[in-house]
């Protein structure tokens, strides 16, 4: 069901956020010798409150911008990009506010690396899942099947036309008419 898929997506988002934090930290340590202008990150204690806020914040924003249902809705690439850009812009603003409130010390480059890693991983994961869902749909799996019941009427015809014209039309099995 769509709800189960949305909950699975939120669990994957939690995993992606944790992986993005780790990836940003690792990338920062690898880039520091190449770019001496990157500062040594502060100790974990200096920004622990901010790190602990990232996961619930990202999950809340994912629900607010409906990125957690993008796979179930099988949105297009442009719509997916728009939703993820909104999520990350709002996330950056929220992180800035949280940094001010908690008075945490954190490198801007570390935040930028986290945002880039998070965006890339979320986009790739959702794109792969949407492509898989579309492949399954093209093979007939996950396709809604509709059996119309009642007297043929103008409303039934309008419903059938609208269903066929939708982005992922159901398979119309036919109709049953009262005898």
Give descriptors for this structure.
single chain, 2 strands, 6 helices, 179 residues, elongated
Task: Report what the structure shows.
This protein is mainly α and 179 residues long. The protein has six helices and two strands; from the N terminus they run αααααβαβ. It has helices at residues 2-31, 44-64, 70-73, 77-102, 108-138, 154-165; strands spanning 145-149, 171-176. The protein has a two-stranded parallel sheet with strand order 1-2. α6 (154-165) links the parallel β1 (145-149) and β2 (171-176).
Let me know the largest β-sheet. 2 strands, parallel
Helical stretch count?
Answer: 6
Number of strands: 2
- Structural class based on helices, strands and sheet pairing: mainly alpha
Give a brief rundown of this model.
The chain has 179 residues and is mainly alpha-helical. The chain is built from 6 helices and 2 strands.
List the helices and strands and how they pair.
Layout: H1 2-31, H2 44-64, H3 70-73, H4 77-102, H5 108-138, E1 145-149, H6 154-165, E2 171-176
Parallel strand pairs: 1-2
Helix pairs in contact: 1-2, 1-5, 2-4, 4-5
